[in-house]
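Practice problem 4.
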């Protein structure tokens, strides 16, 4: 009888310990985000969302990336059109990237993109890799 009580107590204690460790890990981790979009005008609401999440997450807010895919990548070359988005993104700590496959498919020269826009070889693969690292993801 004594053994059963001690065993039960040990099991309960280990459950609480595991739960406390999981809670502690969750509280210290950064929250990272990735968004895939096919439309440049969606950058504004995406960046506003990043700002709101940064406020909500506080010191837990981590990386926020936006990957532009599809035919719209050609519009990234328009530096005048992109300037307000790039300024907003910089202020919010948002990293705008272009899908290399889309650039190639729609014959868009990556050297003509604003310097703030990084090219990732494959936007979808980049997204999946970040998801495997725990990034929250959405496609618009």
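Answer key:
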């Amino acid at each position: 009888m004594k053994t059963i009580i001690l065993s039960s107590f040990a099991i309960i204690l280990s459950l609480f310990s595991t739960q406390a460790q999981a809670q502690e890990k969750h509280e210290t981790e950064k929250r990272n985000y990735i968004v895939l979009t096919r439309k440049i005008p969606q950058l504004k609401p995406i960046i506003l969302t990043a700002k709101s999440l940064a406020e909500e997450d506080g010191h837990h807010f981590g990386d926020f990336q936006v990957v532009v895919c599809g035919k719209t990548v050609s519009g990234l070359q328009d530096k005048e059109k992109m300037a307000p988005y790039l300024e907003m993104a910089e202020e919010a700590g948002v990293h705008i990237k272009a899908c290399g496959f889309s650039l190639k498919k729609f014959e868009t020269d990556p050297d003509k993109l604003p310097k703030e826009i990084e090219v990732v070889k494959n936007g979808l693969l980049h997204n999946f890799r970040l998801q495997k690292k725990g990034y929250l993801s959405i496609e618009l």
